[in-house]
């Protein structure tokens, strides 16, 4: 316990016991000043309670507020939610003696969650339409969007500005705008996604197996 201050400040330390997470954290707002545990990480949700899209009641429930809410969270949310800046900054520390179990996927890596991905991306699944070249292409396109496009999109979602010219240049360098048109003579002589697929190999299944057509995350 933090004996120096009954209503502990997260600035005092970054590792907490389960008992410390469970105690009240404000004399003024003992009900809403809550911490929770998600996958061995401690989050101060005091200022987020009334902003929660699902309502404050969900976060103030007896099995969530001040408790390990890992199962409750992952029953309704993807892990990526915790990585978003507006939620990542709610983390104030970790739980002593615990380690996180859910790890973020590497860029381009398919999700192992059942039915989270198209069946043709799953190991052991045979498709008459998609082959290993399509899978390699899909991973490369997803990796590019996750590392280059998505972070810029998040930044400009917040500030309302258009996509950065640097990102546009990188999209053109990969010839993604040209691939959006589909296979054809316009691709001749171009290097597609760094050479993973040749203009002659590029087909309509390449066009739809990555975020080429909608320019969104697959």
Explain this structure:
A hairpin with a 2-residue loop joins strand 2 (35-38) and strand 3 (41-44). This protein has a 4-stranded mixed β-sheet with strand order 1-4-3-2. It folds into 2 domains: 12-95, Cytochrome b5-like heme/steroid binding domain (Flavocytochrome B2, Chain A, domain 1, Roll); 119-209, no CATH class. It has helices spanning 18-22, 56-59, 70-74, 80-83, 85-88, 132-159, 165-173, 176-180, 204-209, and strands at 15-16, 35-38, 41-44, 91-95. The protein is of the alpha+beta class.
Give a quick summary of the entry:
The chain is of the alpha+beta class. The chain has helices spanning 18-22, 56-59, 70-74, 80-83, 85-88, 132-159, 165-173, 176-180, 204-209, and strands at 15-16, 35-38, 41-44, 91-95.
Mean pLDDT score, rounded?
A: 84
Which spans have pLDDT < 50 for at least 5 consecutive residues? 1-9, 214-218
Strand order of the largest sheet: 1-4-3-2
Percentage of residues in strands: 5-15%
| Helix and strand composition category | alpha+beta
- Discrete helix count: 9
How many structural domains in the coordinates?
2
Largest sheet: 4 strands, mixed
Query: Looking at the structure, what is the overall shape?
Result: elongated
Helix content: 25-40%
Radius of gyration from the CA trace? Answer: 23 Å
